[in-house]
Amino acid sequence: MAGSLNPDRSEWDVIVIGGGPAGETAAQYATRFSGLDAVIVERELVGGECPFWACVPSKALLAPVHLLATGRDLGGIRPLLADRHLDVDGVLNRRDAIVDHFDDGRQVERALGWGLDVVRGRGRVTGEKAVTVDGRTLRARQAVVVAAGSRPHTPEVPGLREARPWYSRDVTAMHEVPRRLLVLGGGVVACEAATWLRALGAVQITLVERSTRLLTDQEPFAGAAVGDSLRASGVEVRFGQTLTRIERPTINDTGVGRIHGGPVTVTLDSGATLRVDEVLVAAGRRPNTEVLGPGEGLPVDEHMTVEGMPWLYAVGDVSGASYLTHIGKYQGRIAGEVIAARAAGRPLDEAPFNRHTDLVRRGAVAQVIFTDPVIATSGLTEAAARRRGYDVETVEMDLSQLDAGRVLRDHYRGRTKLVIDRRTDVLLGATFLGTEIAELIHAATVAICAATPISAMWHAIGSFPTLSDVWSHLLESVDTQRMAASRPGP
Ligand SMILES: Cc1cc2nc3c(=O)[nH]c(=O)nc-3n(C[C@H](O)[C@H](O)[C@H](O)COP(=O)(O)OP(=O)(O)OC[C@H]3O[C@@H](n4cnc5c(N)ncnc54)[C@H](O)[C@@H]3O)c2cc1C
Ligand SMILES: NC(=O)c1ccc[n+]([C@@H]2O[C@H](COP(=O)([O-])OP(=O)(O)OC[C@H]3O[C@@H](n4cnc5c(N)ncnc54)[C@H](O)[C@@H]3O)[C@@H](O)[C@H]2O)c1
């Protein structure tokens, strides 16, 4: 039976606070085939950050940028594009259509179609199995799931908050392109946003990162390649620096995605000052744990249950495990199935790699970063594997001479690296860098999650001339490396 929007009732089996990808999925999985009912409490748009202000609009803005860059690197097409630029209004209008003009009608219909109820309002956990929504108390018979997402972090820099800087929502829902921009941070949001801002007409972009490289969670060669590419496009990248002061005499209340006032004077700790039209803060995110009350954290076990509170679950960004949609949905599936199993009195399957076990805790996370070149990663980097105590073997390959790459672009830039556990001979991590490389990562994710031995992967031959051909080259390199190491010395 279809659910209702804002129904006049106050008790459900399951209450989910937050209707983003993680919350929607937890509610769906808790109720399908279980006989349980559930409500999603959402203060803004059902669907959450991802479809309206994050993954979807950012990738909608980047798709034409990637296509243009590839076309400019293809003999036969290059002359047609040489002095051509993107049609900015066309790109922004397409983005607006893809985000349904910020109307969550499709997402609400989908939730109601799954039999879920939706209550619009701001929820807060106010007691055991009790949630208050704008003064009204809702009660859960079985479980409360917190799926409240995250918000951007604002570093404590004098004048920064007061200057009303841009955050990720402004840059994904951008209506005006700032000519001169300072980007604070060198992580994923900063690198992706600098890529589309430059292509859409920002003439001066200065990216300020306090550490010594971009994308610090990735293999160092990945951040270095993105840095080279940003610099080549005209972005200035400054490492080991941060902001010490921001001054913006004129602030205008122009709304999300519009320039928030007059020019901004930014002082860096190097002593340099810059004058820009906007500042984008992309300095990480923080979980919205305030739904539990001030200062409360949400440490969860592998069943997504909050420690010490068997009726309370946390999934998605708010759990702090990773800030990725597909991981939030994965956690939502686990929480939903665990809630349904516990309500039915069924034991949880405790065997390793079962449907109730959170593999994210072992580092089995895939991510694609849509810079130019694209970075696709799964599992652990070499450094992360060593930190976890693995005896690591690695193999790396430059992809510029791979036939598939040479067909795709005149100057294909690419690199790949596998991280292998010497003791068990299974893949721990993989990084692929290059144009159109994103879809390659799922093969690595399957191998990591299934703990496939490298010796078995040897028989999984990639088709020629696709980028998957790289697997055969990598496995050959592992073989060569091992044979050379096992040969007696001279
Ligand atoms: C610019 C950008 C680009 C990104 N690109 C990607 C990408 O390409 N791929 C990827 O995997 N991830 C990407 N991410 C991350 C991704 O957007 C998040 O990981 C994902 O949205 C998290 O889902 P969630 O359900 O945990 O939280 P959210 O999507 O944030 O949803 C949480 C929901 O809870 C609601 N809420 C919060 N508090 C309350 C309350 N008290 N009462 C009621 N409702 C409440 C919010 O309104 C929101 O709708 C990107 C993030 C950003 C910022
Ligand atoms: N394609 C994708 O999968 C995608 C895209 C966008 C965002 N996301 C997710 O969103 C999350 C947030 O992204 P993000 O880029 O905001 O955070 P991040 O943690 O990836 O990067 C933040 C960067 O800002 C730097 N920084 C922080 N404070 C600073 C300061 N005061 N001065 C100078 N530098 C400073 C940090 O050193 C770090 O490099 C990420 O964890 C990512 O998983 C994913």
Map the helices and strands:
Elements: E1 11-17, H1 21-31, E2 38-42, H2 49-53, H3 55-71, H4 78-81, H5 88-98, H6 105-113, E3 117-120, E4 123-127, E5 130-133, E6 136-146, E7 150-152, H7 168-172, E8 180-184, H8 188-199, E9 204-209, H9 220-232, E10 236-239, E11 243-247, E12 264-268, E13 273-276, E14 278-281, E15 285-287, E16 312-314, H10 325-343, E17 366-369, E18 374-379, H11 382-387, E19 392-398, H12 403-408, E20 415-421, E21 426-434, H13 441-449, H14 454-457, H15 469-486
Parallel strand pairs: 1-2, 1-6, 2-3, 6-16, 8-9, 8-14, 9-10
Antiparallel strand pairs: 4-5, 5-6, 7-15, 11-12, 12-13, 17-18, 18-21, 19-20, 20-21
Bound molecules: flavin-adenine dinucleotide and nicotinamide-adenine-dinucleotide (NAD).
Domain FAD/NAD(P)-binding: 13-326
Organism: Dactylosporangium roseum
Pfam families: Pyr_redox_2, Pyr_redox_dim
Low-confidence stretches: none
Helicity, in percent?
25-40%
Described by strand count, sense and barrel closure, the largest sheet is: 7 strands, mixed
Q: What characteristic shape results from the CA principal axes?
A: globular
